[in-house]
Each structure stands twice: as C-alpha cells, then as structure tokens.
Amino acid sequence: MTKAELIKRYLVFFLSLWINGFGVALVTIAALGTTPISSAWYEISLHTPLTFGMVTMLGNLILITSQYFMLPNRKDKKALLVLFSQIPATLLFSISIDVNMFILQSVIPELNFYLYRFVLLITGSVILAFGVALEVKADVALVAGEAFVKAVCSFLHKEFGIIKTCFDLSLVCLAVIIGLACTDFTYVESVREGTLVGALMVGPCVRLIAPHLKFIDKFFGTAETAIKEQSAFAFNPVITISREYGCGGRVLGKMLAKKLNLKFYDSEIITLIAKETGYSEEYVSRNENRLDNALLYQMIMQDYAVPLDKSLSKQDALYVASAKVIRKLASESPCVIVGRGADDILKDNPLCVKIRLFASFESKLDRCLNTYHLTKEKALKAMNLFDKRRAEHYAHYANADINDIHRYDLVLDSGAIGLEECCDLICALFKNRSSNVNSAAQSNQKL
Q: What is the structure's pLDDT at 103?
C-alpha cells in the first residue's frame, strides 16, 4: 500500500467515525434507547454532569488501558503503536457524538409523537450503517471496544464470538443496572425497543450499502491494482457443482473428473481448510456450513464502529479459508469442485462451468435409502438440515439465492435424466465453453 493510498484510507476512516457519531446521536435523540455498544456510556451521562461523548471517551480510555496490561510484551513497539492509535479514533468519535447531539437537540423539536421518533430511529440506523460501510472500505484501524475484545480473546485463549457476546451483553446489563439504581428501580432510558430495532437493522443495511461503494476504490487508487491482480490470476477450466442433498453431486463429480481427466475436490477441501486455519479436520467438517455464531455476531452483537473483516468469527474465518483454498486449486489445474459456494467464489473465471443439481423428493429419498444406506428418519432429517444450511450459508456469503437458476450455466434434474446423461451434457458444455474461450483469446492476440 502506497503512502498516498494510506492517507486517503485514513481520511475515509475518520469521515466514517464522524458519520457513525452522527448516526448514534440521531438514534439517541429519538429517545427510544441507543445502540447496544453505547448504552452504558449514555446511561452514565444521564446521571452525571458529563456529556455522552465525554463518557464514551473515558470508557474507551479504560478499555485501552486494560489492553496495555494484557499485552504479552509491553515493549513491543508495533503492539504499542496499534494500542495508542485507538486514542485519536476514540477522540474523534466522542467529539462527533457530542457535537451532533448538540446540533440535533437545537434543530429537532420536542418529540411527543411516537411515529416521528421511530422514523428518526430508522434514519439514524441507516446513517450508522453507511458509516460502518465506509469504515469497512477504509480498513485501516480498530476502535477501542473491538481491540479490547481481541485482547481478551488472546489473553484468555477463548473464541472471539463468545467474548464479544459477553462484552456487549455486559455493557447492556451495566446500562440497565445503572439506570435502575439511579431512578429507584423505575426507568432505564438507554435500553429500550429502539436498542433492539437499531441493532437488527444496521447489519443488513451494511450489506445492502457496501456493494454500492466500489467507486471509493478509484479514490484509493486500488481499482487498477485489482485489475492487475485479476489479470495475473491463472484461470483454468473448472466445473462447480451445487446440489440438493440426495442428488448424487459427489458421484457425478467423480464421473466428470474421470471422463474429462480433471482433478476432483469435495471432502478433500476439508483437509486443506484445516491446514489453512489451524483447526482440526473434525472441527472444519462440523462447522463449515454453520452460521449460528456468525449471524449472532453480525446481526445482533456487532460493534458498529469496526470493519467486519477485522473481527471474523470462526465461521467467517472458515469461509475466507475455503475461498482461498478453492481459488488456489482452480489456479493450479483444471478441476471439479463440489459445493462450498465455489460457483460464486470463482464467478470471475470465464472458464468456470456452474452446475446446479436438483431432483424430486421421491428420487432424493430413494438415493438416501438405497445408496447412502440411511434409515428413512435419518434421510428425511438430513435432506432438510443440509439443504437449509447450504441455502443459508450461500445467502449469507454470496448474498444470493442458491436456487436462482440464473446463477448457473446448466440446471439438471438428476433424478429424471440420470447421472450418466447429466455427465454427458456437462461434458459437452464444458468442452464447448473451453473451446469458445480459447478461440476468443486467440482472436484477441491476432488483433
């Protein structure tokens, strides 16, 4: 990263902090509760002479100081630099909260109409999501809350998701305790219905806004770099197979690999992901399609002032590792890859043939009973469970419907036409695709 790009990224980062402060202020002004991460700081400000921003600053300074005592090596200059870099970010965010609270209180009339307050809450949540999306794009620093959780995880050797959830819940509980203690157990202003509504809204809004911020790459100067990296990527012919459970995707993949003399990858990827992440193969196999912690983290307990890729849950880490492994395999040699959202991961590969398999309920059940040798009870449970997990996983990471036929080159009913016929059709398409792309490449070279 060049010095000029780094400066631009920090400018966007500081802008995002100011926008985040404005979003938090607007949500708070609505008087329906504030964001989970800010609830304790706001509740304290209501019962002391200190402003919301001042308490936010002091609270984060306590978190920064706590991190210092958890450092494995307090003489590590790089670690200290990361630690102290949180101070200006916290200062700017705190000032933004106070300045925007002052402005909003001056221009917004007294809020007696509930619907009006709710509209302000929704608007503030959307603005907060925009600020987070900008911060994700900047990708240069952590704020105190997020860095504190990471420090605790490292110090206690615990999973990030668990510590993060405990930390956020602790702040909400602290806000409730302070509010009740200071009002004779009658009222808590910082934690209300708006706290939940805002928390649930910001995550999805970030996902909607983020794809529309690609223009910022031009400001950073990373667009040209990305094009160069993409052109340097070695594209190979690849067949990806997305399937419903019981359609015979693995069997078909092996047939294709043998007939076309391609390498085959399905459960073999688990071993490679385990090496990439350091997790056991058993853990990868059990968790690679699960979203429980990742969704809880992103949708409910996310610290909205932090880039998502700076705070991966284990499920997110598994997906990132899987994507790296799949792209590496596809760049090394022609192959067949079953599942794991490979069609989306390799969507920039013009030589990738994307297949979707489906079948009737009766056909899938018959295969489960006679080929997989499952009992009817286990077969029905597996069909429902695996299809649901795969659809949720694909929707979460590809941001698309796994059953959308427009995302595939060929959609086949394996039960109706049989795996042999499916294999012949895919082979024909694969050879035709490779031939057309090669012909186009040769024509371009001549031009």
A: 93
